[in-house]
């Protein structure tokens, strides 16, 4: 997992992109003992309201909220290796609703641009395709001196209305939603990415697919009949 500190200065710095100070502290998501468990505290308040971007059925019995940073290598690994299986076997079957929560970390100087690009793609209903492009090409845009150009290329390849996309990025129109996610995460004590909440309860570690499936089974045992199809990404 990648860890971060308070983002107070960051809220005012998107136009400058460079976040002053901050040292990135990283730790692996491996080394768990005793299987997956829930944290005894840190629950998402029911009054928090819908945040982030969700995929899956509104009637899914289990919702997972993932606080994630686009520059975080552990988030990229999870998005590329684990999430497709979760989407196909748990989300598409109507059992899980998955919610991405923006959580750009201080010290990740290029992350704000990626989060803004994804939020602007969301204005055109293309968040998840942009999410995939950003994580699959993380090494390229993070290493680039002009990551915004690569991010714009992603948007163009996805067939977005580039006039709308460019104005969204230029005006930072979607940035308010990114900050709302970040502030909610701060209020819940999220300090590293990826951090996940299942039905409002914080997970103590990043699950493998099998661990998550077992946890979902314990909350909502699968019915004998074939599950109803879930809603598509949106």
Give a quick precis of the structure.
With 234 residues, the protein is an alpha+beta fold.
Give, in spatial order, the strands making up the sheet with the most strands.
Answer: 3-9-8-5-6-4
Structural class: alpha+beta
Rounded mean pLDDT is 82
* Terminal-residue CA separation: 26 Å
Strand content: 15-25%
Most strands sheet? 6 strands, mixed
Q: Count of helical segments?
A: 9
Q: Using the alpha-carbon principal axes, give the shape.
A: globular
Oligomer: single chain
Using the CA coordinates, give the radius of gyration: 17 Å
Helical residue percent band: 25-40%
| Helix and strand sequence | EEEEEHHEHHHHHHEEEH
**Uncertain parts:** 5-41
Instruction: Please provide the count of β strands.
Output: 9
Element layout with pairings:
Elements: E1 2-3, E2 25-26, E3 38-43, E4 53-55, E5 62-68, H1 73-81, H2 83-91, E6 96-102, H3 111-122, H4 127-136, H5 138-143, H6 147-157, H7 162-171, H8 175-187, E7 192-193, E8 195-198, E9 201-203, H9 209-219
Parallel strand pairs: 5-6
Antiparallel strand pairs: 1-2, 1-7, 3-9, 4-6, 5-8, 8-9
């Amino acid at each position: 997992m990648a860890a971060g500190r308070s983002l107070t200065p960051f809220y005012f710095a998107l136009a400058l992109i460079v976040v002053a100070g901050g040292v990135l502290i990283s730790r692996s998501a491996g080394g768990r003992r005793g299987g997956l468990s829930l944290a005894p505290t840190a629950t998402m308040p029911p009054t928090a309201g819908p945040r982030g971007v969700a995929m899956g059925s509104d009637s899914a019995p289990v919702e997972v909220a993932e606080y994630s940073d686009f520059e975080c290598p552990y988030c990229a690994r999870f998005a590329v290796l684990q999430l497709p299986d979760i989407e196909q076997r748990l989300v598409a079957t109507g059992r899980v609703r998955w919610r991405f929560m923006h959580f750009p970390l201080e010290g990740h100087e290029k992350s704000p641009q990626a989060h803004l690009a994804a939020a602007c793609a969301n204005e055109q209903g293309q968040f998840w395709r942009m999410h995939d492009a950003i994580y699959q090409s993380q090494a390229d845009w993070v290493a680039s001196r002009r990551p915004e150009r690569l991010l714009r290329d992603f948007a163009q390849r996805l067939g977005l209305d580039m006039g709308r996309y460019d104005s969204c990025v230029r005006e930072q129109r979607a940035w308010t939603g990114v900050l709302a996610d970040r502030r909610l995460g701060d209020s819940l004590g999220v300090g590293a990415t990826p951090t996940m909440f299942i039905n409002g309860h914080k997970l103590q570690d990043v699950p493998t697919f099998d661990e998550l499936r077992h946890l979902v089974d314990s909350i909502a045992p699968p019915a004998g009949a074939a599950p109803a199809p879930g809603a598509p990404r949106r």
